[in-house]
Amino acid sequence: MARWKIAYSRHNNTEVLEVDADQAPDIEQAAALLLEHARLHFDREGPGPDPDQERTAAVRLAEHYGVTVTGISRAE
What we know:
With 76 residues, the protein is of the alpha+beta class. The protein has 2 helices and 3 strands; from the N terminus they run E-E-H-H-E.
């Protein structure tokens, strides 16, 4: 299993979430992993309960936590 870095931007800062996976996560998987991370570690910035569960993880991540995925790379 390889270790992958998911770089993301939040409040004009770049941060990294490291995950273990056999293959590099695609952008949708990375957004879903970051959304779970954000739910546990960041204060929600958007309105109350998510009115539209059909939105992608990337959209909910940006709207509710101000986070955008900026890159995915293999950790050394």
